[in-house]
Amino acid sequence: MHDTGTPLAEADYIGATAHELSEKRAAAKIAAGIDQKTLFQRRGRIILRPDLLVLTGWSDNGDLTLTRADITAAETRFTPLYGRFLGGLLNAGQPLILTTTKASADEVYLLVNHRGFLETTDDRAWEKRIERWRRG
């Protein structure tokens, strides 16, 4: 049984899978220079609970719910799918990447509390929080 008690942390996110980002055409990437939501079409709340990490509104089927065992890594970094041009020149725009064992969401890119004008996020804080949580 999972503990669905008081959340340890909660914030807004926009997200996409690595596969979804790889399918984006050049026009979408150019538009993302103005608004990241053109690349990250999933949105909701990221909720860290004692036993679960939940991404609300992940798909038409509902939330994406991950246990500690489902997440093999949480890191912030630029990749060929989402680089400095899109995330801003500062490292503060690096996406939070969750590597999971779920076939439907094997690599999840998130921008947590994304602030478009400054191209900053709370991704680094969430990376540390999730890694501490994963290690129990």
Tell me what you see in this structure.
With 136 residues, the protein is of the alpha+beta class. It has helices spanning 18-22, 26-32, 84-87, 123-134; strands spanning 9-17, 42-48, 53-59, 62-66, 71-76, 96-100, 107-112. Strands 4-3-2-1-7-6-5 form a 7-stranded antiparallel sheet. A hairpin with a 6-residue loop joins β6 and β7 (107-112). It is globular, with a radius of gyration of 14 Å. The relative contact order is 0.21. The mean pLDDT is 85.
Give a nutshell description of this structure.
The chain is α+β, with helices and mostly antiparallel strands and 136 residues long.
- SSE order: EHHEEEEHEEH
- Counting helices, strands and paired strands, the structural category is alpha+beta
Give the overall average pLDDT: 85
* Contiguous uncertain segments of 5+ residues: none
Question: Helix count, per DSSP?
Answer: 4
Shape: globular
Q: Mind describing the biggest β-sheet?
A: 7 strands, antiparallel
Which percent range fits the helix content? 10-25%
Would you report the number of β strands?
Answer: 7
Side by side, the strands of the main sheet go: 4-3-2-1-7-6-5
Spatial separation of the terminal alpha carbons:
16 Å
Radius of gyration: 14 Å
> What is the strand content?
25-35%
Layout of helices and strands, plus pairs?
Elements: E1 9-17, H1 18-22, H2 26-32, E2 42-48, E3 53-59, E4 62-66, E5 71-76, H3 84-87, E6 96-100, E7 107-112, H4 123-134
Antiparallel strand pairs: 1-2, 1-7, 2-3, 3-4, 5-6, 6-7
